[in-house]
Protein backbone atom coordinates (compact mmCIF):
# COMPACT_ATOMS: atom_id res chain seq x y z
CA UNK A 1 0.00 0.00 0.00
CA UNK A 2 1.22 3.53 -0.80
CA UNK A 3 2.50 5.42 2.25
CA UNK A 4 -0.10 7.94 3.38
CA UNK A 5 0.52 11.50 4.57
CA UNK A 6 -1.82 14.44 5.13
CA UNK A 7 -2.19 18.00 6.32
CA UNK A 8 -4.70 18.57 9.12
CA UNK A 9 -6.25 21.97 9.78
CA UNK A 10 -9.46 23.97 9.99
CA UNK A 11 -9.85 25.42 7.44
CA UNK A 12 -7.60 23.32 5.21
CA UNK A 13 -8.99 23.50 1.68
CA UNK A 14 -6.65 26.43 0.82
CA UNK A 15 -3.55 24.37 1.71
CA UNK A 16 -0.99 23.92 -1.07
CA UNK A 17 0.76 21.11 0.84
CA UNK A 18 -0.72 18.19 -1.18
CA UNK A 19 0.38 19.84 -4.44
CA UNK A 20 3.88 20.51 -3.04
CA UNK A 21 4.40 17.01 -1.60
CA UNK A 22 3.14 15.32 -4.76
CA UNK A 23 5.66 17.36 -6.76
CA UNK A 24 8.41 16.31 -4.32
CA UNK A 25 7.33 12.67 -4.65
CA UNK A 26 7.43 12.73 -8.47
CA UNK A 27 10.81 14.43 -8.43
CA UNK A 28 12.42 11.99 -5.96
CA UNK A 29 10.66 8.83 -7.19
CA UNK A 30 9.06 8.28 -3.77
CA UNK A 31 5.56 6.77 -3.86
CA UNK A 32 3.30 8.68 -1.47
CA UNK A 33 -0.31 9.74 -1.15
CA UNK A 34 -0.91 13.12 0.55
CA UNK A 35 -4.40 14.39 1.48
CA UNK A 36 -6.08 17.34 3.16
CA UNK A 37 -8.02 16.44 6.31
CA UNK A 38 -10.52 18.94 7.71
CA UNK A 39 -10.57 18.33 11.45
CA UNK A 40 -13.42 19.54 13.70
CA UNK A 41 -12.20 22.12 16.22
CA UNK A 42 -12.81 19.74 19.14
CA UNK A 43 -11.59 16.61 17.36
CA UNK A 44 -7.85 17.03 16.84
CA UNK A 45 -6.48 14.34 19.15
CA UNK A 46 -8.94 11.68 17.91
CA UNK A 47 -8.16 12.54 14.27
CA UNK A 48 -4.40 12.18 14.83
CA UNK A 49 -4.74 8.89 16.74
CA UNK A 50 -7.07 7.45 14.04
CA UNK A 51 -4.74 8.53 11.25
CA UNK A 52 -1.72 6.73 12.71
CA UNK A 53 -3.77 3.72 13.89
CA UNK A 54 -4.89 3.30 10.25
CA UNK A 55 -1.26 3.12 9.13
CA UNK A 56 -0.74 6.81 8.19
CA UNK A 57 2.98 7.70 8.08
CA UNK A 58 3.15 11.43 8.72
CA UNK A 59 1.16 14.62 9.22
CA UNK A 60 1.60 18.30 8.68
CA UNK A 61 -0.41 20.42 11.08
CA UNK A 62 -1.72 23.87 10.31
CA UNK A 63 -3.95 26.52 11.90
CA UNK A 64 -5.31 26.27 14.59
CA UNK A 65 -3.82 22.97 15.83
CA UNK A 66 -0.04 23.54 16.04
CA UNK A 67 -0.06 24.07 19.83
CA UNK A 68 -2.30 21.02 20.36
CA UNK A 69 0.07 18.96 18.21
CA UNK A 70 2.94 20.11 20.43
CA UNK A 71 1.07 18.95 23.53
CA UNK A 72 0.12 15.62 21.95
CA UNK A 73 3.64 14.58 20.88
CA UNK A 74 5.39 11.99 23.08
CA UNK A 75 8.70 13.66 22.27
CA UNK A 76 9.73 16.75 20.37
CA UNK A 77 12.75 17.92 18.37
CA UNK A 78 14.61 20.75 20.17
CA UNK A 79 13.53 23.39 17.62
CA UNK A 80 9.89 22.35 18.18
CA UNK A 81 10.27 22.20 21.94
CA UNK A 82 11.27 25.86 22.09
CA UNK A 83 8.85 26.95 19.38
CA UNK A 84 5.89 25.76 21.48
CA UNK A 85 4.25 24.54 18.28
CA UNK A 86 4.50 21.47 16.04
CA UNK A 87 3.84 21.40 12.29
CA UNK A 88 5.14 17.88 11.57
CA UNK A 89 4.20 14.58 13.24
CA UNK A 90 5.40 11.04 12.62
CA UNK A 91 5.85 7.78 14.52
CA UNK A 92 9.27 6.49 15.56
CA UNK A 93 9.84 3.47 17.82
CA UNK A 94 6.16 3.50 18.78
CA UNK A 95 6.29 7.15 19.86
CA UNK A 96 4.58 10.16 18.32
CA UNK A 97 7.36 12.60 17.41
CA UNK A 98 6.68 16.32 16.92
CA UNK A 99 8.90 18.68 14.96
CA UNK A 100 8.61 22.23 13.66
CA UNK A 101 10.06 22.94 10.24
CA UNK A 102 8.63 26.46 9.75
CA UNK A 103 11.61 28.40 11.14
CA UNK A 104 14.13 26.24 9.30
CA UNK A 105 12.06 26.73 6.13
CA UNK A 106 12.33 30.51 6.35
CA UNK A 107 16.03 30.51 7.21
CA UNK A 108 16.86 28.10 4.37
CA UNK A 109 14.89 30.21 1.91
CA UNK A 110 16.79 33.33 3.00
CA UNK A 111 20.29 31.91 3.41
CA UNK A 112 20.49 28.94 1.04
CA UNK A 113 18.16 30.01 -1.77
CA UNK A 114 18.82 33.77 -1.71
CA UNK A 115 22.29 34.07 -0.15
CA UNK A 116 21.15 36.34 2.69
CA UNK A 117 23.47 35.81 5.66
CA UNK A 118 22.07 36.23 9.16
CA UNK A 119 25.30 35.80 11.17
CA UNK A 120 26.44 39.09 12.65
CA UNK A 121 23.49 41.02 11.22
CA UNK A 122 20.92 43.27 12.92
CA UNK A 123 17.57 41.54 12.47
CA UNK A 124 14.10 43.02 13.05
CA UNK A 125 11.07 40.77 13.50
CA UNK A 126 7.65 42.36 13.00
CA UNK A 127 4.98 40.49 14.97
CA UNK A 128 5.05 38.26 18.04
CA UNK A 129 2.60 35.49 17.19
CA UNK A 130 3.13 31.78 16.59
CA UNK A 131 5.15 32.22 13.41
CA UNK A 132 7.69 34.54 15.06
CA UNK A 133 7.94 32.29 18.10
CA UNK A 134 8.59 29.31 15.80
CA UNK A 135 11.32 31.21 13.99
CA UNK A 136 13.21 32.44 17.06
CA UNK A 137 15.04 29.22 18.06
CA UNK A 138 16.28 28.68 14.51
CA UNK A 139 17.16 32.34 13.98
CA UNK A 140 19.18 32.47 17.19
CA UNK A 141 21.10 29.43 15.96
CA UNK A 142 22.30 31.57 13.01
CA UNK A 143 24.15 33.90 15.44
CA UNK A 144 22.75 37.30 14.43
CA UNK A 145 24.38 40.30 16.19
CA UNK A 146 21.02 41.47 17.50
CA UNK A 147 17.33 40.59 17.18
CA UNK A 148 14.60 43.16 17.89
CA UNK A 149 10.93 42.15 18.06
CA UNK A 150 8.38 44.88 17.30
CA UNK A 151 4.72 44.16 17.89
CA UNK A 152 1.44 46.06 18.09
CA UNK A 153 0.82 44.44 21.50
CA UNK A 154 4.22 45.08 23.08
CA UNK A 155 3.56 42.72 26.00
CA UNK A 156 3.56 39.75 23.56
CA UNK A 157 6.98 40.79 22.21
CA UNK A 158 8.26 41.21 25.78
CA UNK A 159 7.02 37.72 26.68
CA UNK A 160 9.04 36.27 23.78
CA UNK A 161 12.13 38.17 24.93
CA UNK A 162 11.75 36.65 28.36
CA UNK A 163 11.32 33.17 26.87
CA UNK A 164 14.24 33.40 24.44
CA UNK A 165 16.56 35.69 26.46
CA UNK A 166 19.92 35.78 24.71
CA UNK A 167 22.46 37.76 26.74
CA UNK A 168 20.99 41.15 25.81
CA UNK A 169 20.98 40.42 22.07
CA UNK A 170 17.18 40.07 22.00
CA UNK A 171 14.85 42.97 22.80
CA UNK A 172 11.27 44.13 22.35
CA UNK A 173 10.02 47.49 21.11
CA UNK A 174 6.77 49.25 20.26
CA UNK A 175 6.29 50.33 16.64
CA UNK A 176 6.41 54.03 17.57
CA UNK A 177 9.80 53.56 19.27
CA UNK A 178 11.31 51.59 16.37
CA UNK A 179 14.69 52.90 15.15
CA UNK A 180 16.78 51.45 12.35
CA UNK A 181 18.89 50.64 10.58
CA UNK A 182 18.36 46.89 10.23
CA UNK A 183 20.12 44.53 7.82
CA UNK A 184 17.26 42.00 7.72
CA UNK A 185 13.57 42.70 8.39
CA UNK A 186 11.12 39.80 8.61
CA UNK A 187 7.40 40.52 8.61
CA UNK A 188 5.65 37.88 10.70
CA UNK A 189 2.45 39.85 11.24
CA UNK A 190 -0.77 38.85 9.54
CA UNK A 191 -1.48 42.54 8.74
CA UNK A 192 -0.74 41.91 5.06
CA UNK A 193 -3.62 39.44 4.79
CA UNK A 194 -5.96 42.45 5.01
CA UNK A 195 -3.72 44.68 2.89
CA UNK A 196 -2.31 46.49 5.94
CA UNK A 197 1.23 47.26 7.04
CA UNK A 198 2.58 47.91 10.54
CA UNK A 199 3.67 51.59 10.89
CA UNK A 200 7.36 51.61 9.87
CA UNK A 201 9.80 54.56 9.84
CA UNK A 202 11.12 55.51 6.39
CA UNK A 203 14.78 55.07 7.45
CA UNK A 204 14.35 51.54 8.86
CA UNK A 205 16.60 49.73 6.38
CA UNK A 206 20.40 49.61 6.28
CA UNK A 207 22.08 49.78 2.89
CA UNK A 208 21.73 46.43 1.12
CA UNK A 209 19.00 45.27 3.53
CA UNK A 210 16.94 42.15 2.91
CA UNK A 211 13.20 42.08 3.65
CA UNK A 212 11.13 38.93 4.03
CA UNK A 213 7.33 38.69 4.25
CA UNK A 214 5.95 35.44 5.68
CA UNK A 215 2.72 36.21 3.83
CA UNK A 216 2.42 35.37 0.13
CA UNK A 217 -0.21 35.83 -2.53
CA UNK A 218 -0.62 36.71 -6.17
CA UNK A 219 2.00 39.35 -6.90
CA UNK A 220 4.11 41.36 -4.43
CA UNK A 221 2.72 41.73 -0.90
CA UNK A 222 2.15 45.13 0.74
CA UNK A 223 5.35 44.68 2.77
CA UNK A 224 7.39 43.67 -0.28
CA UNK A 225 6.22 46.82 -2.06
CA UNK A 226 7.14 48.91 1.01
CA UNK A 227 10.59 47.25 1.06
CA UNK A 228 11.21 47.95 -2.63
CA UNK A 229 10.15 51.58 -2.18
CA UNK A 230 12.51 52.02 0.81
CA UNK A 231 15.73 50.74 -0.70
CA UNK A 232 15.79 47.00 0.13
CA UNK A 233 18.30 45.06 -1.98
CA UNK A 234 16.20 41.90 -1.58
CA UNK A 235 12.42 41.66 -1.01
CA UNK A 236 10.85 38.22 -0.76
CA UNK A 237 7.43 36.78 0.01
CA UNK A 238 6.70 33.65 2.09
CA UNK A 239 6.11 31.14 -0.72
CA UNK A 240 9.70 29.96 -0.46
CA UNK A 241 9.25 29.41 3.29
CA UNK A 242 6.14 27.33 2.60
CA UNK A 243 7.95 25.08 0.14
CA UNK A 244 11.12 24.86 2.26
CA UNK A 245 9.22 23.84 5.41
CA UNK A 246 7.49 21.17 3.33
CA UNK A 247 10.86 19.95 2.01
CA UNK A 248 12.17 19.73 5.56
CA UNK A 249 9.13 17.62 6.57
CA UNK A 250 9.59 15.41 3.48
CA UNK A 251 13.24 14.90 4.51
CA UNK A 252 12.16 13.84 8.03
CA UNK A 253 9.61 11.38 6.65
CA UNK A 254 11.41 9.96 3.61
CA UNK A 255 15.12 10.58 4.34
CA UNK A 256 15.59 12.42 1.04
CA UNK A 257 15.73 16.19 0.50
CA UNK A 258 13.77 17.33 -2.56
CA UNK A 259 14.83 20.23 -4.79
CA UNK A 260 12.72 23.24 -3.90
CA UNK A 261 13.48 25.68 -6.73
CA UNK A 262 11.47 23.86 -9.45
CA UNK A 263 8.51 23.48 -7.08
CA UNK A 264 8.53 27.19 -6.16
CA UNK A 265 8.75 28.06 -9.85
CA UNK A 266 5.82 25.75 -10.68
CA UNK A 267 3.68 27.28 -7.92
CA UNK A 268 4.44 30.78 -9.19
CA UNK A 269 3.42 29.64 -12.65
CA UNK A 270 6.90 30.42 -14.10
P1 LIG B 1 -0.73 34.96 14.92
O1 LIG B 1 -2.20 35.19 14.83
O2 LIG B 1 -0.16 34.08 15.96
O3 LIG B 1 0.00 36.41 15.09
C1 LIG B 1 -0.36 37.47 14.27
C2 LIG B 1 0.62 38.64 14.47
O4 LIG B 1 0.27 39.68 13.55
C3 LIG B 1 0.57 39.25 15.87
O5 LIG B 1 1.87 39.66 16.20
C4 LIG B 1 -0.37 40.45 15.66
O6 LIG B 1 -0.15 41.50 16.56
C5 LIG B 1 0.06 40.89 14.27
N1 LIG B 1 -0.96 41.70 13.56
C6 LIG B 1 -2.14 41.26 13.07
N2 LIG B 1 -2.78 42.27 12.43
C7 LIG B 1 -1.97 43.37 12.53
C8 LIG B 1 -2.07 44.72 12.08
N3 LIG B 1 -3.14 45.14 11.39
N4 LIG B 1 -1.05 45.58 12.34
C9 LIG B 1 0.04 45.14 13.04
N5 LIG B 1 0.19 43.88 13.50
C10 LIG B 1 -0.81 43.00 13.25
O7 LIG B 1 -0.29 34.50 13.46
P2 LIG B 1 0.98 33.61 13.04
O8 LIG B 1 2.15 34.11 13.83
O9 LIG B 1 0.64 32.18 13.10
O10 LIG B 1 1.15 33.99 11.51
C11 LIG B 1 1.61 35.28 11.08
C12 LIG B 1 1.63 35.33 9.57
O11 LIG B 1 2.62 34.46 9.05
C13 LIG B 1 0.30 34.91 8.93
O12 LIG B 1 -0.01 35.85 7.93
C14 LIG B 1 0.59 33.55 8.32
O13 LIG B 1 -0.17 33.34 7.15
C15 LIG B 1 2.08 33.67 7.99
N6 LIG B 1 2.75 32.36 7.98
C16 LIG B 1 3.35 31.94 6.82
C17 LIG B 1 3.99 30.73 6.75
C18 LIG B 1 4.63 30.32 5.45
O14 LIG B 1 4.95 29.13 5.28
N7 LIG B 1 4.88 31.24 4.54
C19 LIG B 1 4.06 29.81 7.90
C20 LIG B 1 3.44 30.35 9.10
C21 LIG B 1 2.79 31.58 9.11
P3 LIG B 1 -0.88 41.50 18.03
O15 LIG B 1 -0.07 40.56 18.88
O16 LIG B 1 -0.80 42.91 18.45
O17 LIG B 1 -2.28 41.01 17.79
TrEMBL record:
Enzyme Commission (EC) number: 1.1.1.25
MF terms (GO), sorted A to Z: NADP binding; shikimate 3-dehydrogenase (NADP+) activity
Active-site residue list: 66 (proton acceptor)
Domain Quinate/shikimate 5-dehydrogenase/glutamyl-tRNA reductase: 117-191
Pathway connected to this protein: Metabolic intermediate biosynthesis; chorismate biosynthesis; chorismate from D-erythrose 4-phosphate and phosphoenolpyruvate: step 4/7
Domain Shikimate dehydrogenase substrate binding N-terminal: 7-89
Catalysis performed (reactions): shikimate + NADP(+) = 3-dehydroshikimate + NADPH + H(+)
Domain SDH C-terminal stretches: 238-268
Gene Ontology biological process terms in this record: amino acid biosynthetic process; aromatic amino acid family biosynthetic process; chorismate biosynthetic process; shikimate metabolic process
Keywords tagged on the record: Amino-acid biosynthesis, Aromatic amino acid biosynthesis, NADP, Oxidoreductase
Residues annotated as binding NADP(+): 127-131, 151-156, 214, 238
Family, per entry: Belongs to the shikimate dehydrogenase family.
Cross-referenced NCBIfam families: aroE (TIGR00507), PRK00258.1-2 (NF001310)
HAMAP family found in the cross-reference section: Shikimate_DH_AroE
Function: Involved in the biosynthesis of the chorismate, which leads to the biosynthesis of aromatic amino acids. Catalyzes the reversible NADPH linked reduction of 3-dehydroshikimate (DHSA) to yield shikimate (SA).
Protein known as: Shikimate dehydrogenase (NADP(+))
Annotated organism of origin: Alkalispirillum mobile
Amino acid sequence: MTDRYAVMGNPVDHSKSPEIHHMFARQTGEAIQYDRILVPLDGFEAAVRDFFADGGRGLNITVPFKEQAWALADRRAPRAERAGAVNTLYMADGELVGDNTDGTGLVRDLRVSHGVALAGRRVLLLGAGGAVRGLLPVLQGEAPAEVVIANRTVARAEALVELFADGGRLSAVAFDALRGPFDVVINGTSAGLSGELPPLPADLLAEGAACYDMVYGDGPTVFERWAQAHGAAVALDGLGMLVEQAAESFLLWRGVRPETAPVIAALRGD
